[in-house]
TrEMBL record:
<dbReference type="InterPro" id="IPR039261">
    <property type="entry name" value="FNR_nucleotide-bd"/>
</dbReference>
<keyword id="KW-0285">Flavoprotein</keyword>
<dbReference type="InterPro" id="IPR017927">
    <property type="entry name" value="FAD-bd_FR_type"/>
</dbReference>
<keyword id="KW-0274">FAD</keyword>
<protein>
    <submittedName>
        <fullName>FAD-dependent oxidoreductase</fullName>
    </submittedName>
</protein>
<dbReference type="InterPro" id="IPR017938">
    <property type="entry name" value="Riboflavin_synthase-like_b-brl"/>
</dbReference>
<feature type="domain" description="FAD-binding FR-type">
    <location>
        <begin position="1"/>
        <end position="107"/>
    </location>
</feature>
Amino acid sequence: MQIYWTKINKIIEETPEVKTYLLDCPKDFTWEEGSHTHFALKGFNAGDKPNRSLVRHMSISSLPDEDAIGITTRIKEQCSEFKSILRNLEVGNEVAIFKTHSNIPLKRESKNVYLLSSGVGLATFRSLVLEYLKRADNINQIHSLNIDSSKAFLFTDIFKSAPEKNFSAQFVDNRKDYYEEVKNLAADKDGHFYIVGSDDFIVQNIEVLREQGITPEQIMLDKRENELSKFLIN
């Protein structure tokens, strides 16, 4: 396993609770849209065994051509040891990344794609949307639906409807409107539905989609193959 140590080169305050950490790209480090990585803080591998409290599984919100590895995360006032340390890091501090992989690259099968997310889960989809806007080959259209009760919606510069590019974005701040809209989107019996959020959020979305006749094969989750069976049971 290769561990890449790299430096924070910029910290963006997206909202009062959400920050994006832009990391320098180590030589030979590559990734594709929808990737996640293990993001670790200094000292995580200092002992005989890795200190798992200093490691988190994070989505990469940027694309390689942006020349930075973007890690977007919510840090609340009351937070874990990991988030507390992260909150106090500054530009120039070192962090580690390793075990990078994508479970949800864009499927280019000439179908409609629906991106369903909750809160900061939208960060996972940022790279998919950017990749689609660069190259829309074999995708009919993309629609993003995000729920965030805080109303502090993320990445509104990218997640804005562009009819000429067959891209639309929708934000809602309550569960009733959100799940009504999921039902409406599920009227497309041939689309691909990507879901990112907490496990409870994923389960609820799958229940709604399955009730509307969407099959497990049409549902994409940011989960390893050995985890998928917990969610997608025929």
